[in-house]
C-alpha cells in the first residue's frame, strides 16, 4: 500500500509540516497564503522542499520522473503550455505515453472543446482540463487536488465528488480547499493548515466546523460563567440561533444573518451581563468570510467599548465606594 | 535521442517560433551588411582591407552578433528553474534534464547556423572587396574554420547563458553578457573563463595567458562542458 510522508518539511510558507498519509481521503482546509498551494506543488513534484523530506513510497516526487508518473495533480495555477500549435487533443496525445491517460474519459467530462488551441485556454479552462486529466488517470498512487470542486462547473460537482470517493477507496487522495462547506461535502479525514502550520482537526472540531459551515455568520464564545451569559444572549434579536455545548467545556455557539450585527449583539450581551469572556472566535463558510467576520468582531468590540465609556460618567456621578477590606492578620 | 530530449526540441521550436527566428536572422544579416558597408568606406589602402575583413569576422560576427543572438535566443526560450519545474512535460512524469537539454540543443543549433552563415558571408564580403593577394581568401579551409569557430562559439555562449539564467534568472544572463564584454577582451587570467577571449584568439587575436589556437579551442569546449554540467546539476530530474 502506498504511503505519502512529509518529514519536517519547510517550504515557504509551510513550516515544519509532518504528515503520514495512506489510502483514503485526506482533506486540508486552508488557502494559498496558508500554504495549501505549496503543499499541492510539493506533492506534485513541481517544487522542492527547502528543508525536510517528502516521499511517496520512498521516492521524492521532485527528483524522480517515475514517481511523478504515479501522481495525478491539480495545481492552484496551471501554467500555459509552451506548445503554440497544438490543440487539446494533441496535448493529451502527447501525455498519453507518460501517463496511460484515458483521453475519451477526459474529453467526455471536460467542457473544453478538444479542437481548442492550448494557447487560447483561459486559466480557469486550463484548471478544469487539468482536473479531468488528474481524475481520469487510471492507476496513480496519489491524487493531489487543489480546490477540485471550484475547478469544475457546478453541474459536474456530483461527478467530481463521486470520482474522488471512488479513488479514495484504494489510493491516497489529498484535497486542499478553502471552503468549510466543501470539507463537509467531501468527508474524509480533515486537517487545518493555518499560516503554514498543519493542525489536526479533532472529532468535535469537525462537528463544530460542520455547524459553522451552515449559512449565516457564526461566533463561538468561551466564558468564565457561560450560564449567566446565555439569558443576555437570548435577549438579542440579531442572534437567531444559540447553542450551549456543555461537553465542549461550556462553549456557546451563536448564529446570525450578518457578521457585524451578530458581533455587535454579542458585544452588547457581554457588556450587559458583565460576564468575563475568555475567547471569542468566528466561523464562516469560507476563509474570506471568516476574515471579514473577524474584522467585524473587532469593530463590534470597539463600538461596545465606546458605548461603555459613554455610559460611565452617568454611573460614576454618584459613586458608591466601599471601604477597602481589612488586611488579613499577619500580613505586612 | 530519447523522448524527453525530442520533446524539449519540439517545445523550444514552438516557443521560438518561425517568424521570430527568421526576423532575428534577418536582423543579424542587416547588422553585418551595415557593418560591411561602413568598413568598406573606411578602407583607404589595400593593406587596410585585410584588417577590415578580420574586424568584420572577429568584431562584428563573433564579437557582437553572436553573443547578442545567443542572449536573445536564451531570453526568448526562458528557462528559469521555476519554469522548468512546472513545465507540463516534466510535471506529468518526463525527465526534466533530458527535456531541458533538448531545449538548449535547438538554441545552439539556431545560433550556430546563423553564426556560421554570417561568418561565411563576412569572409566572402571581405574577399570580394579587398585587394587580391592581401585578403583572407574565401577557400574551403577558411570557410570550414569559420563554420567550426561559429558552432563552437554558439555552443559555449548558448549553454553559458542558459546556466546563468537557470541560476540567477534574467539578471544572471545580463551579468554574464556584461562580464564577457568587460573581461573577455583582456589577455590576463581574468579573461580565461569568458568565450569572447577564446573566440578572438581563434580568429587571430591575442589569447589569454598567451595560449595557442588549439588551447583556446579546448578552453571553449571546456567552458561549454562546465556550463552544461552546472546546468544539469541545477535542474532536478
Distance between the termini of chain A: 71 Å
The CATH topology label of the largest domain in chain A is Rossmann fold
First-residue to last-residue Cα separation of chain B: 17 Å
How large, in whole angstroms, is the Cα Rg of chain B? 18 Å
Stretches of chain A where pLDDT is under 50 for at least 5 consecutive residues are 315-332
Instruction: Give average pLDDT of chain B, whole number.
Output: 85
Structural class of chain A: alpha/beta
- CATH architectural group of the largest domain in chain A: 3-Layer(aba) Sandwich
Q: Count of helical segments of chain B?
A: 9
SSE sequence of chain A, one letter per element: EEEHEHEHHHEHHEHEEHEHEEHEH
Q: How many domains in all of chain A?
A: 2
Oligomer: heterodimer
Estimate the helix proportion of chain B, in percent.
over 70%
How does this structure look, described?
Chain A is α/β, with parallel strands linked by helices and 332 residues long. Chain A has helices at 36-44, 65-69, 88-99, 103-109, 123-135, 148-151, 157-168, 180-186, 203-212, 226-234, 259-273, 287-316; strands at residues 4-11, 14-21, 24-29, 51-56, 71-74, 142-146, 172-177, 189-194, 197-200, 217-223, 241-245, 251-256, 277-283. In chain A, 40% of the residues lie in helices and 23% in strands. In chain A, helix 4 (103-109) packs across helix 5, helix 10 packs across helix 11 and helix 11 (259-273) runs parallel beside helix 12 (287-316). The longest helix of chain A has 30 residues, at 287-316. Residues 315-332 of chain A have low confidence and may be disordered. Chain B has one domain. Chain B starts with a helix and ends with a helix. The interface between A and B is medium-sized, with 27 and 22 residues.
Amino acid at each position: 500500500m502506498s504511503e505519502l510522508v512529509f518529514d519536517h518539511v519547510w517550504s515557504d510558507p509551510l513550516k515544519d509540516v509532518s504528515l503520514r498519509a495512506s489510502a483514503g481521503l485526506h482533506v486540508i482546509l486552508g488557502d494559498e497564503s496558508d500554504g495549501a498551494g505549496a503543499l499541492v506543488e510539493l506533492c506534485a513534484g513541481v517544487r522542492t522542499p527547502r528543508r525536510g523530506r517528502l516521499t511517496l513510497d520512498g521516492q521524492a516526487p521532485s527528483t524522480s520522473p517515475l514517481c511523478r508518473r504515479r501522481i495525478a495533480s491539480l495545481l492552484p495555477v496551471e501554467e500555459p503550455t509552451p506548445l503554440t500549435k497544438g490543440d487539446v487533443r494533441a496535448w493529451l496525445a502527447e501525455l498519453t505515453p507518460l501517463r496511460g491517460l484515458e483521453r475519451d474519459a477526459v474529453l467526455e467530462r471536460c467542457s473544453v472543446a478538444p479542437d481548442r488551441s492550448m494557447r487560447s485556454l483561459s486559466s480557469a479552462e486550463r484548471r478544469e482540463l487539468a482536473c479531468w486529466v488528474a481524475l481520469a488517470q487510471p492507476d496513480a498512487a496519489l491524487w493531489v487536488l487543489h480546490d477540485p470542486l471550484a475547478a469544475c462547473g457546478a453541474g459536474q460537482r456530483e461527478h467530481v465528488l463521486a470520482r474522488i470517493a471512488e479513488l479514495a477507496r484504494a489510493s491516497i487522495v489529498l484535497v486542499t480547499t478553502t471552503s468549510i462547506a466543501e470539507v463537509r461535502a467531501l468527508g474524509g479525514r480533515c486537517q487545518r493548515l493555518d499560516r503554514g502550520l498543519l493542525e489536526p482537526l479533532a472529532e468535535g472540531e469537525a462537528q463544530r466546523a460542520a455547524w459553522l459551515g451552515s449559512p449565516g455568520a457564526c461566533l463561538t464564545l468561551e466564558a468564565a460563567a457561560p450560564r449567566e451569559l446565555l439569558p443576555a444572549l437570548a435577549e438579542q434579536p440579531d442572534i437567531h440561533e444559540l447553542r450551549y455545548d456543555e461537553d465542549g467545556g461550556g462553549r456557546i455557539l451563536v448564529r446570525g444573518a450578518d457578521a457585524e450585527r451578530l458581533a455587535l449583539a454579542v458585544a452588547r450581551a457581554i457588556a450587559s451581563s458583565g460576564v468575563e469572556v475568555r475567547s471569542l472566535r468566528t466561523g464562516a463558510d469560507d476563509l474570506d468570510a471568516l476574515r471579514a467576520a473577524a474584522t467585524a468582531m473587532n469593530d463590534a468590540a470597539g463600538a461596545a467599548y465606546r458605548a461603555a465609556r459613554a455610559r460611565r460618567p452617568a454611573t460614576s456621578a454618584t459613586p458608591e465606594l466601599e471601604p477597602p477590606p481589612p488586611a488579613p492578620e499577619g500580613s505586612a | 535521442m530519447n523522448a524527453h530530449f525530442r520533446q524539449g526540441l519540439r517545445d523550444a521550436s514552438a516557443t521560438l517560433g518561425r517568424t521570430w527566428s527568421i526576423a532575428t536572422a534577418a536582423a543579424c544579416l542587416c547588422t553585418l551588411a551595415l557593418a560591411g558597408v561602413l568598413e568598406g568606406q573606411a578602407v583607404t589602402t589595400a593593406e587596410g582591407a585585410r584588417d577590415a575583413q578580420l574586424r568584420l569576422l572577429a568584431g562584428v560576427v563573433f564579437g557582437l552578433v553572436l553573443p547578442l543572438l545567443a542572449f536573445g535566443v536564451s531570453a526568448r526560450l526562458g528557462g528559469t528553474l521555476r519554469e522548468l519545474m512546472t513545465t507540463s512535460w516534466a510535471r506529468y512524469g518526463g525527465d526534466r534534464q533530458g527535456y531541458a537539454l533538448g531545449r538548449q540543443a535547438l538554441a545552439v543549433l539556431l545560433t550556430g547556423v546563423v553564426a556560421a552563415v554570417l561568418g561565411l558571408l563576412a569572409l566572402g564580403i571581405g574577399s570580394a572587396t579587398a585587394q587580391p593577394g592581401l585578403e583572407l581568401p574565401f577557400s574551403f579551409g577558411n570557410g570550414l574554420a569559420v563554420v567550426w569557430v561559429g558552432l563552437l562559439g554558439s555552443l559555449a555562449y548558448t549553454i553559458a547563458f542558459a546556466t546563468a539564467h537557470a541560476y540567477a534568472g534574467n539578471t544572471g544572463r545580463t551579468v554574464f553578457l556584461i562580464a564577457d564584454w568587460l573581461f573577455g577582451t583582456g589577455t590576463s587570467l581574468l579573461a580565461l573563463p569568458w568565450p569572447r577571449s577564446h573566440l578572438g584568439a581563434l580568429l587571430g587575436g591575442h589569447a589569454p595567458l598567451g595560449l595557442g589556437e588549439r588551447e583556446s579551442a579546448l578552453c571553449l569546449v571546456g567552458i561549454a562542458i562546465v556550463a552544461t554540467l552546472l546546468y544539469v546539476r541545477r535542474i532536478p530530474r
